[in-house]
What we know:
Oligomer: single chain
Structural class: alpha+beta
Radius of gyration: 22 Å
Helix content: 25-40%
Amino acid sequence: MGQKVNPTGFRLSVNRDWRSRWYASQQEFPSFLHSDLKIRNYVKKKLQFAAVSKIVIERAWKGKQVKIDIQEIKTPELDAQLVAENVALQIERRIAYRRAMKKALQTAMDFGAEGIRLRCSGRLNGAEISRSEWYREGKVPLHTLRTPVDYGFAEANTVYGKIGVKCWMCRKEEPAAQPATPPPPPPAPAEV
Length: 192
């Protein structure tokens, strides 16, 4: 089941948040959804070389006002979407897919990832029949919901067709915030 379900959607109730934050009535929902898709495509196309990882859209109460907030990612080597886009870009530039995947694996592990899994599918090296190859290093537990597994997908547009690149990245678990213990009471004054 873990490999059949999108890891982000699978973890929404546990440790992930929605990428569209708004509420709409049944009549407005389709138009809001399509406008979200158009906004995402426009921003992705406009900032094509800026390494945009994810686009979060928030709408005001009436839904007409849209807030755009751009945040820098400190370690792009540990972001699954950016790793997948990087491998896809290298495949488009005719670098061997095995070499690109192994380099991405090594870089992510060097930056402190718990585990990473990369999968390329399509007409690899221009072969007549499409196939898929994958590499994994470390641990990537897809069934464990508490584990922060990040997922990214990108497509490489090559001369002989599209090649899909999927990336699952397991980062270190952040320790749960423990309630602060109250400070000990001050010592009682000594009686004379």
